[in-house]
Design goal:
By secondary structure, this protein is of the alpha/beta class. Helices cover 44% and strands 16% of the residues. The protein has eleven helices and ten strands. Helix 9 links the parallel strand 6 and strand 7.
Amino acid sequence: MTDVLSRRTFLAGLGSLAAGSLISGPAFAIDPFDRSQPGPLKLSLSAYSLRKELTASKGEEAAMTLLDFVDYCRELQIPGAELTSYYFPEDFDDEYVLKLKQHCQVAGVSVSGGAIRNDFCVDPDKLQAELDHVEKWIKVYAQLGAPAIRIFAGKVAKGSTPEEAIERCAAACQTACEIAAQHGVFLALENHGGITAEPEDMLEIVKAVDSPWFGVNFDSGNFRNFEDVYAELGKIAPYAVNAQVKVEIVQDNKKVPADIPRIVDVLKNANYGGWVALEYEAAEPPREAIPEWIDQLKGLL
């Protein structure tokens, strides 16, 4: 465990936040990224789109490996692949990571990013384990050459309050960003329910973290039941360092088709440039649906 992510460092960060912006004043650290015009939008596919094939059943091997997933991206002429941590072999080592990196290079597919299953709202005595987990994956994704990793905030722990959860999450993000900075990898907080279900709460966390290696993972499908979800997405888009597009949104607790061109316009209006990953979660079989959605996104991007 490095000194950077020691318990002492984390608790010091939590104390600083308690004395600072989240409680006593609006001394926010991060402004929207200074982008004078839209940048190139590069297409990627999230491994979560093929989660059933990538997940092993009990006692059986998965139908698809991450190497197979990279080949699938190449087959569809998708330049990027998001290699989600959930689908790495349980006993993987450095040799596997290098094999995966070499495979991507030969296939002509870039690692657009990754995802870490973490919870920064857990009780303080459990937070160090979460930080250790995040540090492990920062090093893996840095080795793979991923520019950004999407992380999660979590939901209010039992016996806690939303205010405490936001402070705790911001402190943990601050600490994790210190090690991410050493490896040149962005941490991207995803709007994924819990304390990031509302854009205002999410931005309170983002603005409290003082690191040039921190931003937002813009997920078009994760703000639910807003009157105008595209306007809400527009609030977080200026902070995005990675973007994901889903083909559905949730209105009145029902999934309805998303306006994909409008989602892309939200990103362009925020002058975003970077990876835009399709994260397919709809009911139609992914092998049948993904190629059509990829073709649409290629035209829009």
